[in-house]
Write a structure and sequence with these properties.
This protein is α+β, with helices and mostly antiparallel strands. Bound molecules: Palmitoyl-CoA.
């Protein structure tokens, strides 16, 4: 049972967290693992609100740490269900870092978590349909459809490359690359 359709707005979730010194890496910037863990937390909160069940993370896409986050900044993670399948949901997350003293807000990352709703027997559970109330909701749903399709094409192509690759015949490909072939005797 998936229950009545729900609007995107009903499960939209924001988490804000202060970046404390213990979150820093050796370089003094916020550790990417901390940010990843916060992204997972907000993706879970958002997807489970929509599904009304426990959810698991299946796939994480487009996590790129393009701009460092500093200790003392407030990081806000805004999550929305962009797309629903039968049991899966694609949650879009926008990460922003706010410098409290000068009130500047930087968009540091956008990423996509695929979450699957689970029933009481740990099986994928059908989720409610998504009510698209704005043009943005429609745009995000269609973008997610494209993303799913492109990802599945990439996965197929990578499988093809792996299954057809013969290392000895592919050596030519490496000639201009910055690597040195140095097989040990027993290779
Ligand atoms: C100081 C430093 C600190 C460092 C600190 C670091 C912390 C860094 C934290 C990072 C955070 C990480 C994230 C952890 C978050 C958890 O720990 S959650 C737990 C981990 N995840 C899991 O355990 C999931 C394990 N997988 C499963 O349970 C099953 O494979 C699944 C996903 C339910 C699929 O089950 P299945 O029997 O294959 O079912 P099936 O009907 O075929 O698929 C169900 C749906 O999944 C979809 N699906 C299946 N596979 C995929 C896929 N690969 N991609 C997309 N969709 C898929 C299907 O398309 C289907 O969708 P619908 O058509 O129903 O919409």
């Amino acid at each position: 049972m998936s229950g009545a359709a729900k609007p995107v707005s009903k499960s939209q979730t924001t988490i804000t967290e202060l970046m404390i010194p213990s979150y820093a890496n050796f370089g003094g910037k916020i550790h990417g693992g901390i940010l990843l863990s916060l992204m997972d937390k907000v993706a879970y909160a958002c997807s489970s609100k929509h599904a009304g069940t426990y959810c698991v993370t299946v796939s994480v896409d487009r996590v790129e740490f393009l701009k460092p986050v500093e200790v003392g900044e407030l990081v806000s993670l805004h999550a929305s269900v962009n797309y629903v399948g039968r049991s899966s949901m694609i949650v879009g997350i926008r990460v922003e870092a706010e410098h409290v003293k000068n009130s500047t807000v930087r968009h540091t990352n956008s990423c996509y978590f695929t979450m699957v709703a689970k029933d009481d027997h740990d099986k994928p559970a059908e989720v409610p349909k998504l009510i698209l109330e704005t043009h943005n909701d429609v745009r995000r749903f269609i973008e997610a459809m494209h993303m799913k399709e492109i990802k599945s094409r990439i996965n197929e192509q990578l499988d093809d490359v792996k299954s057809t690759l013969h290392v000895n015949e592919a050596m030519e490909l490496l000639k201009k690359e910055r690597c040195v072939i140095a097989f040990k005797d027993d290779e």
